[in-house]
Amino acid sequence: MASTAPRQIGIVLFDGVEELDAVGPWEVLAFWTRQHPGDGFAVSCLSREGGAVECAKGLTVQAHYSFADAPECDVVLHPGGRGTRPLLHDQSHLDWVRGQRETAALMTSVCTGSLVYAAAGILNGRPATTHWGSVDLLGDLDPTVRVLPDERFVDDGDVITSAGVSAGIDMALHLVARLAGVERARQVRRGIQYAPMPPV
């Protein structure tokens, strides 16, 4: 009998993660997967040790799983934030990212999460974007990356990177469109009432 277990989307949490980098995509993906379970996906949050994580601006959030006990992810979403800076030199974390690259069908990032991907070597030779304030650092970490600073998100097949903070919402809606169709993404966007109208 074929398995009916949902495919897993894992959002990575770590101390210093930018709140909206993680929670914005969570809102999109959790609304989608809970409202439309028949699409066959589930989303959860994971951190190295599991448990509580303090975000960049002081919000405390709870991971569902540790890296060790998390279900195998089909999609990995790595947010950014000031907490990415130590991760660029954390070989244990970079090895974990490389391991996910070997098993996950799709690696995605928000904001400076792409810096971690660059440090792990998985953006080699690819187009990518990041927060506008970290564009130069992305190029410094891996000069082979074709940095696209003006893109809201960059879809390069099995790797998707997005620009800073709120751009993660757009990337997550794009992810829904890829995995479940454009009409589903429109339903999710309406469900979360996301229709940005910038004041300037």
From TrEMBL:
Pfam families: DJ-1_PfpI. Residues 8-177 form the DJ-1/PfpI domain. GO terms for biological process: regulation of DNA-templated transcription. InterPro entries: Class_I_gatase-like, DJ-1/PfpI, INH-QAR. CDD domains: GATase1_PfpI_2 (cd03139). This is Transcriptional regulator GlxA family with amidase domain. The lineage of its organism: Bacteria, Bacillati, Actinomycetota, Actinomycetes, Propionibacteriales.
